[in-house]
Amino acid sequence: MLDQISSPTLLLNEQICRNNLKKMADKAKRNGMKLVPHFKTAQSQQIGEWAKEYGIREITVSSIKMAEYFCGQGWDNIHIAFPFNPRETKKINDLAKDQSLSVQLINVAVTEKLAMELENPLGFFIEIDAGYGRTGVAVTDFELIEGIMRMAIKTDKLKFKGFYIHAGHSYYEKDIEKLYDETRAALNMLKNKYRSEYPELVTRTGDTPGCSVIEDFGDIDEMGPGNFVFYDLMQVNLGSCKREDIAVALAVPVVDIHLGRKEILVHGGGVHLAKDVLTEPDGSKNFGEVVFLNENGWEIPSERSFLKSISQEHGLIKASDELLAKVKVGDLLGILPIHSCMTADCMGAYLSLNGQIVDHVEGH
Amino acid sequence: MLDQISSPTLLLNEQICRNNLKKMADKAKRNGMKLVPHFKTAQSQQIGEWAKEYGIREITVSSIKMAEYFCGQGWDNIHIAFPFNPRETKKINDLAKDQSLSVQLINVAVTEKLAMELENPLGFFIEIDAGYGRTGVAVTDFELIEGIMRMAIKTDKLKFKGFYIHAGHSYYEKDIEKLYDETRAALNMLKNKYRSEYPELVTRTGDTPGCSVIEDFGDIDEMGPGNFVFYDLMQVNLGSCKREDIAVALAVPVVDIHLGRKEILVHGGGVHLAKDVLTEPDGSKNFGEVVFLNENGWEIPSERSFLKSISQEHGLIKASDELLAKVKVGDLLGILPIHSCMTADCMGAYLSLNGQIVDHVEGH
């Protein structure tokens, strides 16, 4: 399989990916929750088929374009976890003809446009901002919540499904348990407040660090993590997983070795990995870590080596003595990504360990 | 033209792009230099055709895949400005059948592989590291330079063209004049040292900040800047250009407005813009700046507004009062990119101001 690779190629270890899917599906089941994984990470119909084997019937995506890619694949529902963009009303009308879809609403203006122009049934969640500050209705802004609800009932096409929180500050906050106390409390309060009016409403949370680490989800009904299908070094850093759980590695050709500086130059840069970065304890930057590739996948070296800098196509590895002793020009190395969602999006396809291309949404 | 846009779309202002091409072509001519623009930025056959109108006959690219995209388009030569990756020897043999190509060599191992396996003529530059430390032979490492030369003459297929310096530290160094003193001196020294043996050797330099700012290139023969065709905010910051010279802007739909926080949420994130970032004087991050779109292109507001944070698909604008007074949900805003090469690579296509799709290399 490695012989067929001449340029940067994203390797996918199916077994690790399936383990990650199974583990999260088991956890959801254990907690009586529905798992609706976020496919902004994998963006793959093939990986969708694997997910179905673990009882997954619905998925989440982050754009209409991505929803379109998964339409007609037998999903019970596709949830577009993004504040609905009113310029795409025509597209949602087209897609919703043949596929059960839901969106997120956070203001009255967009709800009104949908209420007036929707031609087919469409579910919606109200997205709640539980303090992350990126998007969503403030958890105590009942006026806005009820404004959206009142506007939605002007049409029989919009169906309120419940409340969604993306606790995205779990990526910054070290105390995920404390954060989940707030998430649980917020969703519980909203459910109690509105369930007499909407007896079928559900609550959903969606971040990988939380879904990986937390054991007690209280009465939250659904989870929608995305990154867990592959994981990455950012998640290792957050404590969501181990390096061994990372399911993708970028194979990069070695083009030069500088023994004096202990540096290795590879073909693999920002257009392949994206530019997400971690900071090492000594302040140096880490754009991805080296693994040794073999025909069965990859092996994590005992001494760490990492990409200390990248430009558009170049990557410069700060190399351990172990790596320098092994490597020669023309070899392939593997790079575990910092942020696998972005790396997969840059690469636009995967190569499985048995040499098969695995699909990914193309373009944006 | 704006009516047809419903999701993030990269707008290209042909007139600004042509002005940038013309200005650099004029500057090269004024200095008696050959301009060999680096198409890792535009990655477009159409923009290649525009370049030809300004007398450009050769281009630079950063990978074999990109070279392949431009083969058969009538270029006198395509230079692959990347240390040659020996795993791609078969590909270079295939491409070099019908297209004049050149590569960069920085070590003996790869030169030896080419000397043994090349089937068609191939030019090469020796890339010199003038202190940037990313890649290249140290300027005084004559042993390595001559090692490469000696290995290359073992075949009649490899033709030494000269020395190439990418003075990439012009992106970090404020004193570009001083830097160019070193670049000029290094290339001049190498030319004098080897031109009795290689009378046709040329010297080439390649960074946009240097090529934009410097007026005296000494006896450097060729220039290969890339970013100048579009420019971007990083280049504005470096003093290479003005905001008005930026030829691309990402059109993004407004999905929510938070008057209290003076924030605007748009559909436009890391998968569209890439994650290159500038730091504002107050320490906040800037992932791109807002312009007002109109049917003739865009207008730079008198008060700055910028993307203070982005995630995979979300962008959060810190908005001026001027912007807040004008904007409503469902509008389109333009975002000038921090690093246009990366944004164009993420988007994979352009929309011209008259509504035509302009091509870009797909995938990696």
Automatic annotation (TrEMBL), chains A, B:
Gene Ontology molecular function: any one: glycosyltransferase activity
Top-level taxonomic group: Bacteria
Domain Alanine racemase N-terminal: 17-195
Domain D-serine dehydratase-like: 247-351
TM stretches of this protein: none
Listed InterPro entries: Ala_racemase_N, D-amino_acid_metab_enzyme, D-ser_dehydrat-like_dom, D-ser_dehydrat-like_sf, PLP-binding_barrel
Gene Ontology BP terms: D-serine catabolic process
Pfam families per record: Ala_racemase_N (PF01168), D-ser_dehydrat (PF14031)
Gene3D superfamilies recorded: Alanine racemase (3.20.20.10), D-serine dehydratase-like domain (2.40.37.20)
Keywords noted in UniProt: Glycosyltransferase, Lyase, Transferase
Family: Belongs to the DSD1 family.
Protein name: Amidophosphoribosyltransferase
